[in-house]
Write the structure tokens for this entry.
Amino acid sequence: MFRDVSFGQYYPGSSFVHKMDPRIKLVLTLLFMVGIFFVQSFAVFAFVTVFLLAIIFIARLPLRSVLKSIKGIIVLLVLTSLLNIFFTKGVEGEEPLWAWRKIEIYVTGLKQAAKIFLRLVYLVMGSSVLTLTTTPVDLTHAVESLLKPLRVRKFPVHEFALIMSLTLSFIPSLIDETDRIIRAQKARGADFDTGGLIKRAKAFVPILIPLLVGGFRRAEELANAMNSRCYEGATKRTCMRVMKLTWRDFVGGFVVVAFFTGVFLLYGMANKWGNIIWLYY
Amino acid sequence: MSKSEKVTYSSVTVPENAAIFAQNLDFTYNPKSPFAKRALKDVTVTVNKGEFVAIVGHTGSGKTTFVQHLNALIRVQKGYLNVLGQDISIKKPDLKALRQKIGMVFQYPEYQLFADTVLADVCFGLKNFGVDKDKREQMAKDALELVGLEFDKIKEKSPFDLSGGEKRRVALAGVLAMKPQILVMDEPTAGLDPRGKTEILTLVKKLNRENGVTVIMVSHDMNEVYENADRVLVFGDGAIVYDRTPRELFKLEKEIEAMNLEVPSMAAFCNELERRGFVIDENCKTVDEVFAAVMALKEASDV
């Protein structure tokens, strides 16, 4: 049952996107996420769609694996869409599309909901392109490297990155362990799939307790192993894998930056000349 | 194999004395993904009731996958599997009935303990299989005494306060309490000291000989396989490569070593003797038995 949890969902490959520097990918993903909020009209959304599909295609990711990431935010999507549909008031003089007592639905509301829906979906898809093409280890290296400037402010960058990478590296083994404990309890007749809410919640006790005990045991073992090797985080450490920028990073970076410069420009123009219909709707 | 080609097993006849009957069992992890891995390849095997079967093979050879099929922790993807007369390749087998009959002891079973007291932990399985409350304590007592623990001393203790060996025995009792007809064990002696190993193996052998429990034991320790099993299945790359008695199997020294497995020391010794013209009886497997046989040979030649 825990095989479905898509965490550290790295999809092995050797595409252009896979080979890019994780730091650049991280920055570009952030740019993408910010950029999405500057998209105002469906026309520009169409461009973003094509752009995103192109990236997915270049990364040679199956579309299914990218779409799978949306599953996690379905509740959020439905909720925000409904709220927007029901609570957006129309522009002045607009007739409601459908009304019942105090509930009124306007075309403006529908459009608003659709845009927010698209924004959230693209946000998740964009970030999952990053996690699908970058290993968790590379990602933590990227975070560490990007946070380095904070060291001047006495921020423990290395320790922070260490905590992150340890957490990430423990997840697969915790999933494995969970799997194993579930099997062991199932073999003793445990039943996780029937009964009411309370019965089901109770059924998880025989999984959670061994899991917690095991988690503490592992943490202690690791701490001992690190101590016995005189691990010290604060001293200057070098990295086994040195990250270097290549032509791919410049090309990829240029394309994404150029695209979103366009998006930002359009946003500015639309605000200035609101009458350019296709930019606004 | 596409769906249209799927073989139906409605006409399969299961041998009468079979505890486990597998035919063309095939399994792939994460099918249709870049992580796809075929773990079982066309495995066909019959294990008779009351047999003590050891399964060996190095890591990734499919032995754990095979073993987990037996109580439907892994569902049959392709092929036919019948355990104690119950067809478990159908879509919805009666899992409770199946799992009550098959006790499964995983690697490091002490990591599955969770309850406040030893008694509650041993009763967990009994409770799940709907054994009456007043019967449970007696069954738990039997099981704990079977594994050599003093019931009155240990029943109120927290399982987390016990020593490693005691924990393992409590976990084992939790499985044995259900009085399974088949006992499946994945490396039951891993991480134990020599004495703990012997105790567990003696217990298992007793269950097998006296109570007629069918035992399937996955192991990496060829010496314990050699001394205890009636029959050895050697897994390699998802298939059963050899299926023989231990004595027959370990005569194939070169083949065994080529599979990264060890030849048990007593088997190697007997093989060497045999090459020099001294034949030791099939049934002499432990150091003591072989010693006695050698002494007997010596006496015979002295006369």
